[in-house]
Amino acid sequence: MLTEIIFVFEGFNARAAARVFLTLMDRLGHKTFYVQGGDWGSYISSLMARYYPPRIRGLHVNMYFFMLRPWELFKGILIALFPFLVRKEEYRMAFPLKKKIAMILQESGYFHMQATKPDTLGCGMADSPAGTAAYLLEKFASCTGPEALNSEDGDLTTKFTLDELLTNVMMYWVNNNFTAAARFYKENLRNVFSGRNEK
């Protein structure tokens, strides 16, 4: 499958994906076009607009995507731990971090696994359709809303039909491309701390 071929090799990050999509549009005969992105696509389409502005007629994203430099992240954690470093009004407005940090710790394990061990995780997904479904549908539940996490079935069918959920799982299972998709996290995280995505 195309997805597997594209994403498996080392170094294929959001910037490389932007170049692939531009090449695809060239081959389709479109010199200028609109782009829309969600999730990683928000970042990819933003890079397309940033690095190739004459080609992009308009940009729409449904997820604001930004990468903190290590110093900015450290500064945010420092202020969260020592609020006296800023004025109370600024702290209340910009750093309601206790709840956010708790949520991040509870819900970001997938990001850490995919960014550090995509091949290991991919072996388990390739070997088990039930495992693939459990892994992916848990993310659907956590993204449905905080109340879904306490529900027995994750409130999945309140927002999605069973066909929609199964279709999403099957896109990964049938094509055997979970590892490739997970590796995208690793390739992008590698570049975040070096600043290579920004150059």
UniProtKB/TrEMBL annotation:
Cross-referenced Gene3D superfamilies? alpha/beta hydrolase (3.40.50.1820)
Task: Kindly list the biological process annotations in GO that this record carries.
Answer: epoxide metabolic process
A GO MF label: epoxide hydrolase activity
The domain of life for this entry's organism is: Eukaryota
Annotated AB hydrolase-1 domain ranges read 12-61
What does the UniProt keyword field contain?
Answer: Hydrolase
**In this record, what's one Pfam family?**
Abhydrolase_1
Q: Could you say which protein family the record assigns here?
A: Belongs to the peptidase S33 family.
Query: Do you know which PANTHER family this protein is assigned to?
Result: EPOXIDE HYDROLASE, EPOXIDE HYDROLASE 1-RELATED
Q: What is this protein called?
A: Epoxide hydrolase 1
Q: What taxonomic ancestry is recorded?
A: Eukaryota, Metazoa, Ecdysozoa, Arthropoda, Chelicerata
Gene for this chain: EPHX1_1
